[in-house]
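User: I'm designing a mutation panel for histidine kinase and want to avoid disrupting the core. Could you give me a predicted structure to guide residue selection? Please restate the sequence first so the numbering is unambiguous.

Assistant: Good idea. Sequence first, for numbering, then the predicted structure tokens:
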Amino acid sequence: MVCMWRNLRSRLTISHLLPLLVIVPLLSFLLFYLIEARFVLDEATAELAGQGELISRLYQAELSAQEDPEQASSLFARLRVRIPTLFYLVDQNGNIVVRPGLATASTEVPIRPPDPELLQKALAGEIARQVSMGNADVAVPVRNEDQEVVGAVHLSQQLTDVTNRLAVLRWTVWGAVSAGLLVSVLLSFVLSRSLNKPLERLTAASRAVNFDAPPRRVEEEGPAEVRTLARTFNEMSERLYELEQGRRRLLSSVVHELGRPLGAIKAAAQVLGQNGKDSELVVELSSGIDDQVDQLRRLLDDLALLARNEIQNLALDIVPTDVGELVLEECRRYGQRIREKEIELITQFPPEATRAAADPMRLSQIIGNLLDNAIKYTPNGGQIQIEVGTETGLVVLTFEDSGPGIDPSEFERIFDFLYRSPRQERVREGMGIGLALSRRLAEAQGGTLTAHHRAAGTGARFVLSLPVEVAQAPVATAPIQ
């Protein structure tokens, strides 16, 4: 029994049947009571009372019968009633004037003495009725011309036929109720199965989740609540699959991103060990090592911010910052990679220094991420253009490259953590966190970062906007959402 209650299908079936098992029998008993007590038996006693009143009036009309008992017996012998009815005629003292007799020639009605209580009520002037032991008894007063009670008529009728008809009706109703309950059981089972089946599919799908392949969607059918649950499960499984793929890409990218600068540092160290007396070579290799270490530092900063994003706020030092100076510094830092790919770098700055209300270190990190992204996707011999300008109350920094560009459907998705476009699988560099962190750092400083198509030709265009004045900047501590 306990195991049955642990099963949702059993609970649903019982919850549908329990009201029927309680209410239907009660309604059936009420129906039997109303039919038997309020309709059939009341009608039978009312019919007997009508016959008694008819006999009373006939007796009142026959004056000779009232004066001579023999005449009364002759009168009642001539009275023919179409149903088996046993009757007595008594005078006002309760003495029997006409002995038990049948109104018909039937001998199937047993002889029963009149009920004293009914006769007493009839002699008191009221019509008395009683139903007991399968019999209906009625006593009707008999009056003279002055409406004085001079006797009573007692009629008795067996209810055998009535009870037989009621028994047939009772079995018919019970049969209909039983059939209805059986149909209800079947319908409840089918309905509970239809409700439970989608949940079983969800259970099977959750057990079959495998992040090595895209998840199979569960059919969204059934009641609205079950469809919502299935839709939520599908969205959750897809999101978990994307997160798992992002995690794997992140691990692969971390290995790749750490391996590159470490390999370069290792090679430079070996060359320095063999050619330590060449001062120019030492300076060049030392500069290269410094750049590689800076690249590692930036990578670690990005990873640290990715971890801190979920547990605490980021402290910002908002001060007037020369945007052009930071751009030139980052261009110098990435100069070797730009030269290796023979990329044409174009920078456009206003005549005067453009200052934004920003955290210099975090703004430098944003510029470095945008420049690194442009270098990764710009082919050899391509072009990167960086422009610094101003709009109303804003410093606008624009990055354009001649790479493959971005699909419009991905203008927002590329700013999700660990997202990498499936159209750019050939580019192994990157972990899918640089653009996401850059946008959140920009928003934390009161700015925006958006992606667009390049104005001319193929390629991507990123627009970074920051407030000009310190008064418009956010407070020193701002959350990264």
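For picking mutation sites, this is relevant: The first helix runs from residue 2 to 5. The radius of gyration is 52 Å.
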